[in-house]
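Hi X.,

You mentioned you wanted examples for the new student's onboarding notes, showing what a folding record looks like when two proteins sit in one file. Here is a clean example. The first protein comes first, with its sequence line followed by its structure tokens.
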Amino acid sequence: MHTDEGKKFDKRNIERNIKMGIITQKDYETYLSKLPDVSDKLYNPGEELMVNVEEGESKKEEQSEGKKKGAKKRSKGKGK
């Protein structure tokens, strides 16, 4: 069976490749140990949420002031 070297350790194929004897569990563990540590690139929605909350408070204040002004202008136009 032909196996693409780039997909030999693909997580969708790993179980099948181990069962078929294409790779061993030790080969897979060695492959995993050689992968780079990218934990600093991990998406943490809690950090982003805190930043957005701080920015959002000032935006909400600006929007509510704008809405109040807009509401006054509209109410004057409806009475005519």
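Then the second protein repeats the pattern, sequence line and then tokens:
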Amino acid sequence: MKYSFIFSVFAALVLAWPAHAWDGTDVDTGNDVEIERGNLVRSGRDIEVYDYETGEYHDVTVEDINRYGGTVEIEVFDNTTGETRTLEFYDRR
């Protein structure tokens, strides 16, 4: 009985564990942005980026990815606004 309760609590905590997103910054505006888990960030792919300043998701196309030391710079075309944006994230490798 005691072990089943402990197992149930453990299972509930594991299942409720939040999915980790990739937090970064828009280089031009300084706005915080986020790429949610499940978005495959590769050149030519369409992904969703959440912009905390506007409070909206933006559909973007990844145009280029560059690693500089501990950061990753992603150049995207924002299909929502029609602008090219440069986003910077910490490298998670």
